[in-house]
Structures are given as C-alpha cells and as structure tokens.
Amino acid sequence: MAEKHKTFEDVNRRLARIQGHVGGIRRMWQDQRPCHEVLLQMAALRGAVERAARVIMRDHAESCVAAALKRGRGEEAVEELLGALERLM
Asked: pTM of the entire structure?
C-alpha cells in the first residue's frame, strides 16, 4: 500500500465538508430558496474546492514530484504536474 500523504487527514476533512456543503446547496435548491442565496453558497463551495486543490497540489509537489526527481523521473513528474495545473486553471 502506498504511504499516506502528510496532508491526507486535512484533505479528507475538507472533502467531507465539501460533500456536506453540496448536500446543503441541493436542499436549498429543492426548497426553492432565492437564487442569489444558492449562488452565494456555490461561490463558497468553489472556494472550498479550490483551497483543497491547492493543499493537494502543494503536497504533490513536495512529496510525489520530489520523490520522482530523486528516482530520475523528474521530467515526467513535472509534465504531470503541469498537466494538472492546466486543468485546474
């Protein structure tokens, strides 16, 4: 089994909160809450997802990419990182 990332628990908690937030937004929509309130919550959700992605990206650079560099797979790891960054932006 692969070693857990140092941010595993932090990201896991963030994702659980994000999951709960999505459920809350869905309930708001089902309850026909005002659109601006739903949109405000969706903006907060997007921010939470972006913050979780930044934590994962930093951990990836510090652990996965660093390990790949030591194993001589640096170019491949950097390409993977850049591809992920392009999709996130």
From this structure: 0.84
How far is it, in rounded angstroms, from Cα 62 to Cα 79? 15
Q: Are 24 and 37 within 8 A, CB to CB?
A: no
d(CA 73, CA 22): 38
User: Domains along the chain?
Assistant: 8-88 (1.20.58.1000)
Report which residue type is found at 35: C
- Tens of pLDDT along 36-86? 999 999 999 999 999 999 999 999 999 988 899 999 998 999 999 999 999
* CA dihedral over 6, 8, 14, 17, signed as positive or negative: negative
- The Cα–Cα gap between 10 and 79 comes to 26
